[in-house]
Amino acid sequence: MKFIAVLLLCAAGPAIAAPMASDRSRYNACLAQVKADPGRAIAIAQGWRIENGGVPALHCQALAEAARRDWPAALKSFERAARASEQAADGQAGTIWGQAGATAMLAGQPAAALVYIDTAIPLAGGGAAEAQLRVDRAEALVDLKRDKEAVADLETAVKLDPRVEWGWLLKATLARRMGDFKTAEAAILEAAEQTPDSAEVQFEAGNIAAAQGNAELARTAWAAAVAVDPESTAGKAAQAALTGG
User: Fold this and answer.
1) Which CATH number applies to 166-245: 3.40.640.10, 1.25.40.10, 2.30.30.60, 1.10.565.10?
2) pLDDT of residue 24
């Protein structure tokens, strides 16, 4: 189960503040290469680092390495970028530590992700930023089979930001797995209200219904998931559930 919102393989992520307009242009050009040619972006970022490119250069290199799925290198570069950001006191360290956590999850390292996210949370300043980190932290905890702690993080997340991405869906999924169907139903209704056209939400609604023995409602929800996005992971899983596969 992977609900992380930060998909570093597809997007460059939040921009990191650069001290001068010329640096901003160079940073944006480097980010463009992350999407077009990650290998080229790494070379550009490494050259920029030699010229004292600082946090923007380190951050671009980390994103490019993540785009190439070179997880060890990416994590090392994110760490360097975050520490450089802390030293520069530029206000970006929390974002970068959070991205390190997302990368660790993509790399299948939830314990490392937890360390990075725990470093990011005190720097987030509450609100929506902390809410998303709490959702990411809950996912890492689920992977580590620490479900009760994950529940607490999700409760905090939806209180900080009731519209936090994936928060209600992950809460519903976790509640279903723990047999708390009342909470699962309430959470999936919140998720559906926010993203009614989500295959993931419809698939989970079907799972919750099926777990309670309501086969007709389950099939209706699974069919809706397939209709929304048949090629998605959730859509394919819903189709398999419908066919008994």
Assistant:
1) 1.25.40.10
2) 83
